[in-house]
Amino acid sequence: MRWYPLALCLLIVVAGAAAAQDPGIELFEKRIRPVLVEHCYKCHSSDAKKPRGGLHLDSRDGVRKGGETGPALVPGKPAQSALLTAIRQTGERKMPPPPADKLSEGVIADFEKWIAMGAPDPREANLPQASLPQASLPQASLPQASLPRKRGEEFDFAAAGKHWAYQPLRETKLPAVKDASWVSSPIDRFILAKLESQGLTPSAKADKRALIRRAYYDLIGLPPSAAEVEAFVRDDSADAFAKVADRLLASPHYGERWGRHWLDVARYADTKDGVLMFGDDRVRPYAYTYRDYVIKALNADTPFDQFIAEQLAADRLDAKVEPWRLGAMGFLTLGRMFDNNFHDVIDDRIDVVARGFLGLTVACARCHDHKYDAIPTADYYSLYGVFANSEVPLEPPLADRPENCTTLGDYEKQAGPHREKMQKMLDSQYALLIETARERVGDYLLRVATTEPDHAETAIYFLSLAPTDLRPPMVHKWRRYLARPERAEDPVFGPWYALMQLPDLGFTKAADTVIRTWESKQHGSGAGEVNPLVAAALLGEKQDSKATVARTYGKLLTTVYKETKGKQATPEQQQLLDILTSKQSPAYFPKSQAWHNMSRSEKDAYGGMRTQFDKIALKMAGAPPRAMVLFDAADTVEPKIFKRGNPSVPGERVPRQFLRVLSPESRQPFGPGSGRLDLARAIADTPLTWRVLANRVWMHHFGEPLVSTPSDFGTRSTPPTHPELLDYLATTLKAEGGSLKKLHRAIMLSSVYQQASFDRPACREVDPDNKLLWRAHRRRLDFEAMRDTLLAVSGRLDGAMYGRPVDVANDPNNRRRTLYGLVDRQSLPGVYRAFDFASPDQSAERRPMTTVPQQALFGLNSPFMVEQAKALAARTEGTGAAEERMIALYRLALARSPSPLEAQAGLRFIESTQAGSQLTAWQQYAQVLLLTNEMIFVD
After folding, report:
1. What's 641's DSSP letter?
2. Residue with the larger pLDDT of the pair 647 and 188
3. What domain range is 871 assigned to?
4. Which of 68, 92, 132, 402 lies 20 to 30 Å (CA to CA) from residue 841?
5. b/e code 165-203 from CB counts within 10 Å (16+ = b)
């Protein structure tokens, strides 16, 4: 018998996991570089006239060389890094410098983590070789497109479109093979042809006990019982295994098993990630409706194109979906909150959509064109516009039919008044903020005319402002609006544009000349002409300074705004009103962004009300389920490129549309609304999507994917080991209507799937990593399957499905399947981390596989394991003599009877072992069986 604890103890010195990509580089690109661009580059980059302190933060060498006072950071040593001290504002130098606000605690934590990781930084240099995916082919044989582009180099989309992953799906010719007798599926021909080309042969068929156990874990994540194993062993019919596969595919547990795989991709978590959120405040009360949707959708074998559409735009589908399917949109809304920085929230949504469905790292193009793939920054902001025009409603819609929500009335008694209170505050704050922005236009103009830009104007937070104070971001919007070159010919601000160019010395005389020149152009109000009301106002008083000009404009705009309320405006007045009231006005923002524009005290109060609203549902055991959806914004705005990823520096406008490299020549912008449904349809139409999906399914059946980077099919990816097979699977999957169950069945009935897993040294010498699949991969159970198995064999597994999450990490008596355990993004339980649970911070392409001491210690000492050992031993009580009880114990635990040697050794153990403080001898032996490799591994 193979002993799991012994194996763990022998291997603890070689523990480790291979990451598919460098997490440090990813952290830098997503969390560090945007902060440097927004807050530091103005004073510490090559674009600054004279970088302060001689410090350049826009290159890796500049950061490490430092400035006049030495290096900005010491890789791997946050405590010794001056940069971290500066942004913490605990030393003499405080960055960003006052009056700008201190960076948030979350951002500071990101910098500390980045420095501790060695401060990986790809700028101005190729990535370190260790950060690149390890290719199975020599580096020279990788596509030329995988080399980094030079800065400023234009994309060659025609050449980029020839990348293997972007090619159309075509009917694949089945290869010829020598030993056709082994072939039981077209899949086998692709595998066998590769094996024969290397002089290899496939392994023998796995024995029936191993095969049924493999099928059970692959499809439902639970072990077969001894009776089920024996029934399959006795069934000599040709379709015996097909019947097992069909039964498992029809099981409701199928959705639970494969749903967990998709939840890894969807970065599912039950909690928020606010910096100061604790206890119930951090729980999302309706997150579980997305998990339940995934289970139900997979059990119903929802076509994958529909699965995509529901997760991106269930609210926009032509045929109204069942309420529970609205829960699908948790795919978008259950990501991190990023301290309510909605630019980062949108970035996270772009990332999960691109990695999850397309296998592309589109989010790398947020600040600059993608370094490797043909994804320009313009394409990133085209997708940004889709999600920027999508809003989270004040309260999610029901995820069930109202007639099924029997507690809806009780819920409304508590939630109704609170909802009204929130809506009232939102409406009043929005009205106040909008009205103030319009009435104080003169103060905004005065600030622009008389001050230089301030760091605070691009801050996410403004702390101590009263509701009627100027909003720094709105000052910044006015600066941009008035500085645009087209203002030089603007009927309203043309004179302003010219006057602001004048020197202060001799301003009055020069200003009079400018004003009279414009006054002579009062033939209309088009480009190059002047609005007569503007001309009259400027001539009506002496313009002796830029401040006076600003006051004159402010007085005019405010007067027109007040005088025309409730009245019909003249064309000249309407032209001025549009500057204050149109959607293009610097004074405008949609009601959905009222929260972002509130002062800190009002923002905190409103945030507290929203948290309390969530707690009403959380504390009510039978609160009606709700779907965490997005709705299209009432006002659609076309996105602009943010230069260097900085939202304070918008560039050219771009349409909302799909990625150019995956689109036909006649790429069309998305239609009305946000474009989420158009995006879903475009994703379903590209062959890349079906290749990515087929690769994921293959990976979970064989332990290894055909493409080693399941969430990156770009030019840096390793080419597939079996490209023709991947295309065959993708083509078949799409032709079968996107049915995952049909693909599962086809794979499982193939000879390659049914191979034994035993080692063959001659084959291993040729193909040590088994990439050609000359045998089955032996795999350790993942955390969910391991825990569920322990519950199942001990007779304690609770088969209840769906519903709110439960505490499976800290409650040894909890019997629910691990899938239903609460996933706390902020504080992932130690047992989850020890057993390689997927990080919910971002989309996970595959889980690492480590062997660490904590795993053995959990099996030996955890209260949960003790409870299972007791329960398993209790199931054998009263089964007869010791020999019969030993047989019963093996049949329950391992679904087989012990061999004579095992039975003899077990009985000797029982006779010679004293009861411990926690476990009797039989309970101790039950624990031994629960720890065996036979229990924890699948052959």
Report:
1. E
2. 188
3. 4-15+780-938
4. 132
5. bbeebeebeebebeeeebbebbbbbbbbbbbbeeebebb
